[in-house]
Design brief:
With 400 residues, the chain is α/β, with parallel strands linked by helices. It is built from 13 helices and 15 strands. The protein has helices at 22-40, 45-52, 56-68, 132-135, 138-153, 192-200, 209-220, 287-290, 292-298, 305-308, 312-333, 343-360, 379-396; strands spanning 43-44, 72-78, 86-91, 97-104, 107-114, 119-126, 160-167, 170-171, 178-179, 204-208, 229-234, 238-244, 247-248, 337-341, 369-372. The strands form 4 sheets. A 5-stranded mixed β-sheet has the order 6-5-4-7-10, with helices on both faces. Helix 2 packs across helix 3 (56-68) and helix 11 (312-333) crosses helix 12. The longest helix is centred in the C-terminal third of the chain and has 22 residues, at 312-333.
Length: 400
Amino acid sequence: MAAGSTPGTPGIPGIPGTPGTPSVLRAMNDRAVLDLLVAHGPLTRTRIGELTGLSKPTTSQLLGRLEAAGLVHTTGSLSGRPGPNALLYEIDPGAGHVAALSADPTGITALVADITGTVLGKQRVEAEAVAEDVRHRTAQLVAEAVDGALRQAGLGHDDLRAAVIGTPGAIDPHTGQLRYAPHLPGWHSRTLRDDLAAVLGTPVEIENDVNLAAVAEQYEGAAQDNDNYVLAWLDEGVGAAIVLGGTLLRGATGGAGEIGYMPLPGAPLAHGGPEATRGPDGGGGFQSLVSAPVIRELAGSGATLAQALGDDTIVAEVARRIATGIAAVVAVVDPELVVLSGSVAQAGGDKLRVRVEEELTGLALPRPQIRISELDGDPILTGALRSALTQARDQVFDTA
């Protein structure tokens, strides 16, 4: 039931001692209805009242208030029932816009979407991360990608409410510096966040790319309805995102889930710290056993991942290696689900998943479900978009 449906509410649930003033309760009801429209799409006034428990007069006043604020509008009517046709209300897509980006060693991809999540523009800027000129103009490349997406959408910087960028590595909360991503030298400035905000004209969040892939899985992928899961990213690089009790685990330096560095039998140790320069196999650890370049090498020079993982002998060996790494993670965090994502998981498919499960059978460990990600498109961009929308809606939908 929405706030304010019962007179005399003592305060806001979850915030002890907060007065339940009429303006605060109105804002809570506004947000409840806006969230319903995001989740369900267009709804009639009657249906909104049924879902919130608000009276008909209160619902009518609320919708009038949100319509005047430019947050909702009518979009046709619902016919086929006795009486007058009922107006349908939906979120006004022009109420706010966001940018979502993914940075990788070969370039930057940007999306611009409206507050409902509809993508209006997309731009890719190719740029080798290790090129000398890229080191000194990272912010300009980000601006170029976003500007291209904005032009497609017919928008400007002033229309953006939030921007989220996914990168390998993680921002150290104490220093503001990107760590665990030596292959992106242009992203290591301590002022990077401020530099990006300056060129985009909106606050920017820099988030680990695997964490964003996990966000995408939680919203619309294999981890829906799971509050305790691990996403294992198996690609050119290797990492993980750990979600416990519905909360993303980040660690003291933002490095929780950097399992590519994890020491394992059969792998050389990764030395030199998270800022050291390494090759595509990470220089040691779990990544040197299961990254895409290593698996291609198992099949011989020039082989693709699909060709390598079409060989049952190679699949068996790769599954054994993946299971060894997953077992170490499971022993520590005990997830109910492990989602395998990235190009290695996609190339291996269900055959790889089954072999990983078989390798885990019989170990003296909890046995989580193992699933292959089935998300379409780029899960990092999808997660960045979801995160940016959450931030923007918290701003735009706040009517207090």
